[in-house]
């Protein structure tokens, strides 16, 4: 490990801990309504999409390869034109990395590990790591901004961070 490199251990993802960065998308705490003659439960309005008026909300699929432990975090990204929501299609944990912004510069990242089918909705302009499954290649449903304009900003850290998710 390079000199001065910081190792981060992910915390379990909770709505309260993640609140500064966005929303956790999960069934816990939500009240379903029965639909389809009682054969289906609908969990409505679990996250708020924030999309710049120059674009539209879109649904995409991301097929992400699994990462090995430990993970070397060299950069984060953000999206100024819209929020970005991720929902896993597998009941497997993945690492969520976020960082506070000070004067357009990400600060020391925080790492979370998801529990089951939890998704996340990053607020517009939230610095975050890339999609990081840790058990196997995983498919995610992604809801975000579709349209013209530069909706991707990246920041490379001078000294990378190490994310150790071995306990998960």
Task: Characterise the protein shown here.
The chain has 168 residues and is mainly β. The chain has a single domain, classed as Jelly Rolls (Sandwich). It contains 1 helix and 17 strands. Strands 2, 9, 12, 14 and 15 form a 5-stranded mixed beta sheet that branches. The chain is globular.
According to CATH, the homologous superfamily is Ureidoglycolate hydrolase
Low-confidence stretches: none
Over the alpha carbons, how many angstroms does the gyration radius reach?
17 Å
At CATH level 2, the architecture is Sandwich
Number of strands: 17
Residue share in helix: under 10%
Ends: how far apart?
21 Å
Mean pLDDT score: 95
Q: Which class in CATH terms? A: Mainly Beta
Number of domains: 1
Reading the helices and strands in chain order gives: EEHEEEEEEEEEEEEEEE
Kindly name the structural category. Answer: mainly beta
Q: Describe the largest sheet.
A: 5 strands, mixed
Strand content: over 45%
CATH level-3 fold name: Jelly Rolls
Q: Give the overall shape.
A: globular
Count of runs of 4 or more consecutive helical residues: 1
């Amino acid at each position: 490990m390079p000199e001065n490199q910081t190792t981060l251990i992910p915390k379990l993802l909770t709505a309260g801990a993640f609140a500064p960065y966005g929303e956790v998308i999960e069934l816990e705490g939500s009240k379903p309504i029965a639909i389809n003659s009682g054969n289906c439960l609908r969990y409505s309005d679990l996250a708020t999409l924030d999309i710049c008026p120059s674009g539209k909300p879109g649904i995409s699929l991301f097929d992400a390869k699994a990462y090995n432990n430990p993970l070397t975090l060299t950069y984060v990204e953000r999206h100024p034109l819209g929020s970005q929501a991720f929902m896993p299609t597998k009941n497997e944990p993945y690492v969520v990395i976020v960082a506070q912004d000070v004067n357009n510069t990400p600060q020391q990242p925080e790492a979370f590990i998801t529990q089951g089918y939890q998704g996340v909705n990053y607020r517009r302009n939230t610095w975050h790591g890339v999609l990081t499954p840790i058990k196997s290649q995983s498919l995610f449903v992604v809801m975000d901004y579709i349209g013209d304009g530069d909706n991707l900003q990246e920041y490379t850290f001078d000294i990378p961070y190490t994310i150790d998710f071995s306990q998960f």
